[in-house]
Amino acid sequence: MLLWIETIIFTALLILTIYGFFSPLYLRYKLLKLGKSETRFDTPAKRIKDAVVSFFFLNCTLKKERVFTGIMHFFFLYGSLTFDTVSINHVLEGYKAGFHLLGHGGARMIYSAWADVFGIMVLVGVLYFVIRRYILKPKSYTYPSRESVFIYLLLVTVTLTFFLYEGAVIAHNPAETYAAFAGKEVAVWMQAVAPMNMTAVKILWWIHILNVFAFVLYVPRSKYLHMIAGPINIAFQDYNPGSTIKTLNLEDENAQGFGVVKAADLTWKDLLDGFACIDCGRCDDYCPANRSEKPLSPKKLILKLKEEMLKEGRAVLKSNQQKEFEPLMGRIYSEDEIWTCTSCGACMHVCPVKNEHLSKIFGLRQSLVLMEAKFPEELGTFFKGMETNSNPWGFGSSTRAEWAEGLEVKTLANNPDVDILYWVGCAGSFDEKGKKVSTAMVKILKEAGVNFGILGREENCCGDQVRRLGNEYLFQTMAQANIETLKKYNVKKILVTCPHGYNTFKNEYPKLARAAGTNDWNVEVIHHSEFIADLLRQGKLKFKQEIKSSVTYHDPCYLGRHNNIFKAPRTLLSETGAKMLEMKNHSNHSFCCGAGGGLMWTEEKLGKKAYQLRTDEALETGTQLISVACPFCMTMLDDGVKDKGKEETVRVKDIAEIVAGCL
Ligand code: SF4
Ligand code: SF4
Question: Is residue 587 packed enough to be buried (19+ CB in 10 Å), middle (13-18) or exposed (0-12)?
Answer without folding.
Answer: middle
